[in-house]
């Protein structure tokens, strides 16, 4: 194995173990020593790839955001009708966000660790971009009334993020299904 391949393997292992630990224990409870011990490398190896714990978390969050974005897009793309794509994508976001590991990294620790503005930029680059694209297609097709897309996308994104956070604290086994039903009713009110 070449040196470059070893470095990349170490970077992937750091991301994998950091993600596992951040999801299980939360950013604040995980120390760098714990991460390097789990990977079996030195702190120097970690610092070769990441400036600090925050930079490592940022990379983990980017990975999680991209993964959720891919899941949402794949679920939406499986539907032939534009409206059904939109609803399926929104439901896929809620389903992905109901995963406690995703919630912890993406919705709880993300804004707390990086700050609201940086976290928002991550969200806009992935999930919010897909939402904006879907809304644009629906407005152009006349399925949703013509209106400014940015405020609508922010309102829907905020509602879904808040619902995902609520799901994280709900003990009701039917909460996800109830939330999807409520979201569907809300989305239906947008149709012309």
Automatic annotation (TrEMBL):
Residues 8-68 form the HTH tetR-type domain. SUPFAM superfamilies: Homeodomain-like. The keyword Nuclease does not apply. Residues 31-50 bind DNA. It holds the Pfam family TetR_N. InterPro entries: Homeodomain-like_sf, HTH-type_TetR-like_transc_reg, HTH_TetR, Rv0078-like_C. Keywords: DNA-binding, Transcription, Transcription regulation. GO terms for molecular function: DNA-binding transcription factor activity; transcription cis-regulatory region binding. The keyword 4Fe-4S does not apply. PANTHER family: HTH-TYPE TRANSCRIPTIONAL REGULATOR BETI, HTH-TYPE TRANSCRIPTIONAL REGULATOR RUTR. This is AcrR family transcriptional regulator. It comes from Streptosporangium sandarakinum. The lineage of its organism: Bacteria, Bacillati, Actinomycetota, Actinomycetes, Streptosporangiales.
